[in-house]
From TrEMBL:
Primary location recorded for the protein, binned into one broad class: membrane
Keyword hit for Protein transport: no
Residue stretches spanning the membrane: 25-44, 103-126, 138-169, 181-201, 213-235, 284-302, 314-331, 337-354, 361-380, 392-413
Protein name: Glycosyltransferase 87 family protein
Domain of life, per lineage: Bacteria
Species annotation: Streptomyces fildesensis
Length: 426
């Protein structure tokens, strides 16, 4: 009995030593406060950042226009730039929760609240969750978003990312409700912006997969049906998705940035809410991108079949989620700056786990954030004008993301499929 008590005490001491101390967590929280004070003020156009132009046009004009249509009881089905599932109405209408502010300021404030919620969840998970946790995940979120300038607080992607981070952290809990809560959050996130459905790829086989996948499907269907019954045009986004071309910041756009200097007859133009290339071979590249997305999906299925049975290690789910989203980002016909918010959030959850395979991938994501901001917004006009330096920076960003996706897939495969080497004793 004495030995058992001693072992239990030793285990508690070891587990406590594996957790970041409160003092270590105060540093990222302090940096978060300083960076958000500056960047959220810049997004709100307050103090030294005041401007007669007001907040980002994505909020003040695009989102506000959708808000007016949605408030009338219908989806903006006549607007080709509306290319989101019906659940996207929730973040667009969310500023109603802050009636004492105008729409743009209310939206940005709510994004800041979601940012703070993610920080709080990561800090709590690093300090109090079971198992060996690292403060690196908290730092990833604290540092990653500011590298994207004011974009995270001027797009609703930070709201979706908060749901995805919450889902992954819920799944890491050992409580009986963990898988169901994970599934519900994934389902809601998918109805807002599709990509959170990829979080399901890494669920442990058997009961955990059944519970989480059923919960995800039921919650997604329920939200969709509610919108279908309440508002016309809920599925109009499906019509416009097929008309997407090659957005100028995507990986598939790189050949056209080069070709325009060698007599290519195409050009860029606003199309379906983004700047896209139009001209010869664009449709071919779009089809290749779609085919590569199918290949990526096939690889994920193969990984799921081949990976070690059970996948009970807590790090596997977030690692697989980051790999899946990276693969679909680099094969997408669109890579908007706000996509980086998703990757920062998923990488942050990965880095909470000391055993994660994605540590070098997270560094590449941070580097891609820096290059993303260099291109958009600072050099975006130059990029459209054919600037070679701007195109080279974009190429570096996209190739860095491609390298991150390949490295992520390789490390995930080696960590879960390839047999681990053991050293034999003498």
């Amino acid at each position: 009995m004495v030995g058992t008590g001693t072992d239990a005490a030793s285990a508690r001491v070891a587990e406590a030593g594996a957790r970041p101390s409160r003092r270590r967590l105060l540093w990222p929280v302090g940096v978060w406060l300083l960076t958000r004070l500056v960047l959220v003020s810049a997004a709100l156009r307050l103090g030294p950042f005041a401007s007669k132009d007001g907040p980002d046009v994505s909020v003040s004009k695009v989102y506000r226009g959708w808000y007016d249509v949605l408030s009338s009881g219908s989806f903006p089905h006549d607007d080709v730039s509306w290319q989101y599932p019906p659940g996207a109405a929730l973040p667009i209408l969310a500023p109603r929760l802050v009636p004492f502010l105008d729409y743009s300021h209310a939206f940005i404030v709510l994004c800041a609240v979601c940012d703070a919620a993610v920080l709080a969840a990561l800090v709590y998970a690093a300090r109090y969750s079971d198992g060996r946790r690292s403060v690196a995940g908290v730092w990833m979120w604290v540092v990653g978003l500011p590298l994207l300038s004011t974009v995270p607080w001027s797009r609703f992607d930070v709201m979706v990312t908060a749901v995805a981070v919450g889902a992954l952290l819920a799944a890491g809990s050992r409580r009986v409700w963990a898988d169901r809560v994970f599934g519900v959050l994934v389902g809601i996130g998918a109805v807002v912006k599709v990509w959170p459905v990829l979080l399901l790829v890494g669920t442990a086989r058997g009961r955990r997969t059944r519970l989480s996948w059923v919960a995800a499907v039921l919650s997604a269907v329920l939200v969709t049906v509610v919108f279908l019954l309440a508002m016309p045009g809920a599925l109009s986004f499906l019509t416009y998705q097929g008309d997407r071309g090659i957005e100028v910041e995507s990986l598939g756009a790189l050949p056209f940035h080069l070709a325009r200097h060698f007599g290519w007859s195409g050009h860029w133009a606003p199309h379906d809410g983004s700047m896209e290339f139009i001209g010869p071979y664009v449709r071919v590249v779009a089809r290749v991108s779609a085919a590569l997305t199918v290949v990526a999906f096939g690889w994920l299925l193969l990984w799921r079949v081949r990976s070690r049975a059970g996948r009970t290690e807590a790090w596997v789910l977030p690692d697989a989620a980051l790999t899946a989203v990276l693969l679909f980002v680099v094969t997408s016909r669109v890579i908007s700056p706000q996509y980086m918010v998703w990757l920062v959030g998923l990488a942050a959850v990965c880095l909470l786990h000391r055993a994660t395979t994605q540590r070098p991938v997270a560094w590449l994501v941070l580097g891609a954030c820096v290059l993303t901001t260099a291109v958009f917004p600072y050099l975006f006009r130059d990029l459209l004008g054919g600037s070679v330096p701007a195109a080279l920076l974009l190429a570096a960003r996209d190739l860095m993301l491609l390298g991150a996706a390949v490295l992520s897939a390789v490390r995930l495969w080696r960590g879960t499929v390839s047999p681990r080497r053991t050293v034999s004793g003498p």
